[in-house]
Amino acid sequence: MIGGLDSIAVRSREAGRSGGFYLETRGSRHSRVCFEVSAGQSWLWIWEPESVGMAFEASYSDS
User: Fold this and answer.
1) In this structure, how many other beta carbons lie within 10 angstroms of the beta carbon of residue 30?
2) CA dihedral 46, 42, 38, 63 (to 10 degrees)
3) Residue 62 exposure: Cα atoms within 13 Å on the Cβ side
4) Tens-digit pLDDT profile for residues 3-40
5) Most buried one in 41, 48, 50, 59, CB count within 10 A?
6) How do the residues of the chain divide into helix, strand and coil, expressed in percent and rounded to 5?
7) CA 19 to chain centre
C-alpha cells in the first residue's frame, strides 16, 4: 500500500511556459533545470530532459 508521494516528475519541451502557468496560479520555485510546484503535500517537477542531454519522450496512458 502506498502511504504517500513526495514528488512527480513531469517532462516538458517548454518548462518555462509550463512553469510560468503554475508560477502565476499556484506559486512555484524555479531552478536552472526545473520548476518545482506545490501540489498539496506533493511536488511536481516540470523539467526539460533535453536541457541535460536526455531525449524527450512523451508519456502515454492506456486509460
Assistant:
1) 16
2) 50
3) 0
4) 777 888 888 888 888 877 877 777 666 555 567 777 77
5) 48
6) 25, 30, 45
7) 8
